[in-house]
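Budget justification aside, the reviewers requested a transparent look at the raw inputs and outputs of the sequence design task funded under Objective 1. We therefore reproduce one unedited record. The lines immediately below are the structure tokens for a 192-residue chain.
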């Protein structure tokens, strides 16, 4: 059987390239007004964390850790935001669940914009283990570090809710990145 590397169902899946400009990203936040990635002016990076939504218990634990570490990121010149396609009410319920006071929580991400960022889209399987209905369609997780000029430094996308990048390790990695002025990797797009 011949290997076909292009699945016709995934032709619209985007792959972001380090050192290149990321897609636009504009969403409402719960208590910080409108978020626009183009308008962000962090000292070093914006840490954009896409999460599945209120229905995901793993997301809640993951975002609790990001909330806890947001001050650590800030001391390294990194602004944080967590974004989902949930509406305002569900986003507020997630923010309440994780005790968000440091972390900006964005909501209303369109699925077309999620796909622009290379996120995978899943269909509902009904109620989750915590008894919350999944949306009909929603994006799977992704974590990105974006430079102030809106170029990609780091990216990770998942097809599943589990085994995500560890935020404590990312804080430690930033210390190395900053000390060594380490460049973004994975930028080569030529022939292989």
């Amino acid at each position: 059987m011949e290997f076909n590397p292009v699945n016709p169902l995934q032709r619209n899946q985007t792959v972001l390239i380090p050192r290149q400009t990321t897609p636009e990203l504009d969403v409402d936040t719960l208590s910080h007004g409108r978020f626009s990635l183009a308008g962000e002016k962090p000292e070093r990076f914006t840490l954009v964390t896409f999460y599945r939504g209120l229905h995901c218990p793993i997301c809640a634990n993951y975002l609790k850790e990001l909330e806890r570490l947001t001050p650590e990121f800030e001391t390294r010149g990194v602004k944080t935001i967590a974004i989902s396609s949930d509406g305002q009410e569900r986003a507020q319920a997630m923010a309440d669940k994780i005790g968000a006071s440091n972390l900006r929580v964005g909501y209303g991400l369109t699925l077309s914009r999620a796909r622009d960022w290379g996120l995978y889209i899943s269909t509902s399987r009904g109620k989750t283990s915590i008894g919350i209905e999944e949306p009909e369609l929603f994006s799977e997780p992704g974590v990105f570090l974006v430079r102030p000029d809106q170029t990609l430094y780091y990216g990770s996308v998942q097809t599943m809710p589990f085994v995500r990048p560890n935020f404590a390790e990312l804080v430690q990695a930033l210390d190395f990145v900053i000390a060594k002025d380490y460049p973004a990797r994975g930028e080569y797009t030529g022939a292989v």
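The beta strands are 26-29, 34-36, 45-50, 78-83, 104-107, 121-123, 137-139, 142-146, 152-157. The two ends are 23 Å apart (CA to CA). Computational costs for records of this kind are itemized in the attached budget.
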